[in-house]
Amino acid sequence: MNNSNSDFTQGSIIKKLITFMIPILGALILQAAYGAVDLMVVGRFGTTSGLSAVSTGSQVLNLVTFIIVQLAMGITVLIARFIGEKKEEQIGSLVGGATIVFAIMSAVLFVLMVCFSRPISLLMQAPEEAIGLTSVYVRICGAGIFFIVAYNVLAAIFRGLGDSRSPLIFVAVACVVNVIGDLVLVAGFHLDAAGAAIATVSAQAISVVFALFLLVKKELPFKISKEDFCVNSQCRRALKIGFPLALQECLTQMSFLALCAFVNRLGLEASSGYGVACKIVNFALLIPSSLMQSMASFVSQNVGAGNEKRAKKAMFTGIGIGLTIGCFVFIFILFRGDLLTGIFTTDAAVVQNGFDYLKGFALETIVTAILFSMVGYFNGHDKTLWVMIQGLVQTLLVRLPLAYYMSIQPNASLTKIGFAAPAATMFGIVLNVIFYFGMHKNENSK
To answer: How many other β-carbons are positioned within 10 Å of the β-carbon of residue 191?
Structure first.
């Protein structure tokens, strides 16, 4: 373990933050490329029904993946806290306990996704022509859910240790495998949505094997024994941190599934266009997402070391970085978003529908930079209950009602539906600013 690179309690904040963030950003880009490549290859070599199936099915997979990522955030935060407090010997029991808990979760998800793939597709209101293919996509991804969960838990462990480069390496290997798999199974054997699902699961499986190899070879600051593999106090502490985030993510992603269902009612072309736009949205929000993940580790380590002033500076540095990049992304998506949607399909109607949604969404690329940096700061302080509350309030009281209202208008517009996202985020920023000042006012009064 390189102490100079993984010690966030001293040195230049912007240099350390960017150095830690870039590999996380690279890993997120490659992860987003999984779904993007699936959609791109199916859009070029498959059917419109297959494109809709991958679009809808990937929303379900995103729900599961994002919940696991947020739940695993407790592992990242706690490992970083132990390092800041110089209590590395407690990490072994945390990792062992987390292994048991996430293995049980994987088994439950396996049963749900494999056995109930068709009801899930119907619940998503997949277009009638795409229900069968959507069900197949969900079932195959469910069969490989063990690998998807294992990858995200391993990534959380590495990042908690201050190592953001190793997850980048093993996800890069997986991305190459996924691209090859898509080309062979979809373009070559014409397996359509099923081929895309098989390629995704196979790539995740290889990434897990590679990650385990790197973990064994890595010089770790802790030891783990057989006795650590049980649901212990450290594991429960990590779950207490991660559970509010996971619950928020679950309800938020379910709201996105509801949004997908709203759009699906507008027809196959709107459904496919929205699916394409969502892949572009995933890429557009990668900078804020990488800042949020980096901020949690950075702040948690400094809080553990008793350096709150440096933790605050890190948050404002992250906001500055995100806003600078977000402005450029906003301009490009707003005015030339059709170039991006055109990458995924040659269907002119689908391209236009995707661009229409992006026009409304574009402002999100700016305001999310502020929100996610603040959320990362609060996660680093174990204020995950607040993060859950503010997330649910902005999603359930602003984004979802506004999107639903826009979708039931006589001339429903994907642009207006897309604007529900930045509207909710701006409301969330106001809530977080109030909480930030309230939190530090209470601390100063002690």
So the answer is: 21
Query: If you count them, how many residues does the chain have?
Result: 446
Both tokens of residue 30? 């490659």
- Locate all alpha helices (DSSP H) within 46-84, ordered by sequence: 48-84
Q: CA 384, CA 216: separation in Å to the nearest integer?
A: 31
Nearest to 92, CA basis, from 199, 217, 196, 221: 221
- Alpha-carbon distance of 140 to 132, in angstroms, equals 13
More confidently predicted of 170 and 185: 185
Q: What is the pLDDT of residue 2?
A: 45
Q: Find out whether 83 and 67 touch, Cβ atoms under 8 Å.
A: no
372: part of which helix (H) or strand (E)?
A: helix 364-380
Task: Tell me what pLDDT residue 443 has.
Answer: 64
- Residue 122, SS3? helix
Q: Say how many Å lie between the first and final Cα of the chain, rounded.
A: 37
- pLDDT the model gives residue 374: 95
- The distance of Cα 313 from the centroid of its chain, to the nearest Å, equals 25
CB 272 within 8 A of CB 353: yes
pLDDT at 222: 82
Residues 101 and 324 sit within 8 Å (Cβ to Cβ) = no
Q: What's the pLDDT score for residue 46?
A: 87
Mean pLDDT to the nearest integer, 135-146: 95
Q: What is the pLDDT, as a whole number, of residue 445?
A: 56
- The H helix count followed by the E strand count for the chain is 19, 0
Q: What is the mean pLDDT of residues 310-331?
A: 92
Per-residue model confidence (pLDDT) at position 104: 94
Instruction: Give dist(CA 270, CA 351) in Å, integer.
Output: 10
Nearest to 164 by CA among 301, 311, 12, 27: 27
Residues 200-242 have pLDDT tens digits of 899 989 989 988 888 888 877 888 888 888 988 888 888 888 8
DSSP string, 141-179: HHHTHHHHHHHHHHHHHHHHTT--HHHHHHHHHHHHHHH
- Give the separation between CA 332 and CA 409, rounded to whole angstroms: 29
Burial tier of 444 (Cβ tally within 10 Å: 0-12, 13-18, 19+): exposed
The DSSP secondary-structure symbol of 397 reads I
Separation CA 362–CA 335 (nearest Å): 9
Residue pair 84/301 in contact by the 8 Å Cβ criterion: yes
Structure tokens, 435: 């909480």
**Cβ of 82: how many Cβ atoms within 10 Å?**
23
